[in-house]
Amino acid sequence: MKRDFKEWLGQFRNSIADYKYYVDFNKVYGNIENIKIELNILNSLIGSQNIEDDFDKIYEKYPEILKCIPILIAKREYEIYAIDSEGEFTYNFVKPNYSVEQYKVFMRKTGLFDLLSNHIIKDLVDYVTGVEVGLDSNGRKNRGGHLMENLVESFIVKAGFVKDENYFKEMYLKDIEKRWDIDLSALSNMGDVAKRFDFVIKTEQTIYAIETNFYASNGSKLNETARSYKMITEEAKNIDGFAFVWFTDGVGWYNAKHNLKETFDVLDNIYNIQELESGILAKVIK
User: Fold this and answer.
1) Using CA atoms in the order 144, 148, 150, 153, what is the torsion angle rounded to 10 degrees?
2) 76 with 70: CB under 8 angstroms?
3) What CATH number has the domain bearing residue 242?
4) Residues 242 and 207 in one domain
5) Exposed end of the chain (fewer CB within 10 Å): N or C?
6) How far apart are CA 146 and CA 20, in angstroms?
7) CA dist., res. 281 & res. 276, Å (int)
8) Global model pTM greater than 0.85
């Protein structure tokens, strides 16, 4: 029975965030550990009344302190550009390319000397831990994508498929062709497109290429994704022994529903999380 698009779309969820989605604390702690010694050396500058002279002294003895300075202004890059009326500079904090005097200019003009000397903070390890937590929030977008992959994979395993035996992760078209001797040139524009699928399941008669995504917010990428998958659907219909399956969800689709409906109308194997939970995988992949 043909599903009703409006009803299907109404089942989409606001979020699939688990507890580890918000902050990857293991990554945060690992980043801190890499510069913990240098941060503790710089702690000696906190409250200094002669901070520039004291910086000279510790830099002379421990020049490696430079490598932890970028994170103090929430930068991961070790090369930082700055320009003002006195000139333009690209500071390297791993391989020093200026005198200590110029690095003191950086510390002064960015406000770091003031931060340290005026007791605005008490401990740089604690301070940088907070900075790292803030920067790690930028990784939520990537973790969100992996959340949907992980969710779909859990149902693939639950359906009885075994990784690297009859289901595979992140497989390119050329690898599918080589492994099972199938011509997929219609999907790759005669080899010009290096398409990769999130999962591939191989049964006795069919190769199922699977894409997964979850969109909690809208954006131009959704329309592009829907159009791209519609094209794959139409091209895959003429390939014997091959099927395209798309698992998607998320209220971000609400503002791109017209493009999604176009794909929904031509792709029978498009499913949401509710259908996954209802056992659709075992019914579709045989």
Assistant:
1) -170
2) yes
3) 3.40.1350
4) yes
5) N
6) 12
7) 6
8) no
Q: Indicate the residue among 138, 170, 197 that finishes a domain.
A: 138
Give the tens place of pLDDT for each residue, 30-57: 999 999 999 999 999 999 999 999 999 9
Task: Check whether residue 132 and residue 168 sit in a common domain.
Answer: no
How far apart, in whole angstroms, are the C-alpha atoms of residue 246 and residue 164?
A: 20
* Domain end position, chosen among 117, 138, 159: 138
Residues 143 and 274 in one domain: yes
Evaluate whether 264 touches 8 at the Cβ level (below 8 Å): yes
pLDDT band at 78 (very low <50, low <70, confident <90, very high): very high
Rounded mean pLDDT of the chain? 93
In this structure, are residues 234 and 223 in contact, taking their beta carbons and an 8 Å threshold?
no
Give the angle subtended at the CA of 151 by the CAs of 146 and 155, to the nearest 5°.
140
Separation CA 230–CA 259 (nearest Å): 9
Domain count, the chain: 2
Indicate the SS3 state at residue 232. Answer: helix
Q: Is residue 191 predicted with pLDDT exceeding 60?
A: no
> Residue 166 in contact with residue 48, Cβ under 8 Å?
no
Asked if residue 87 and residue 224 are part of one domain, the reply reads no
The residue segments making up the domain with residue 164 are 5-18+139-284
The one-letter amino acid code at 203 reads T
Asked if residue 280 and residue 172 are part of one domain, the reply reads: yes
User: What is the spatial distance between Cα 223 and Cα 231, in angstroms, rounded to a whole number?
Assistant: 12
Separation between Cα atoms, residue 68 and residue 74, nearest integer Å = 10
133 and 34 housed in the same domain: yes
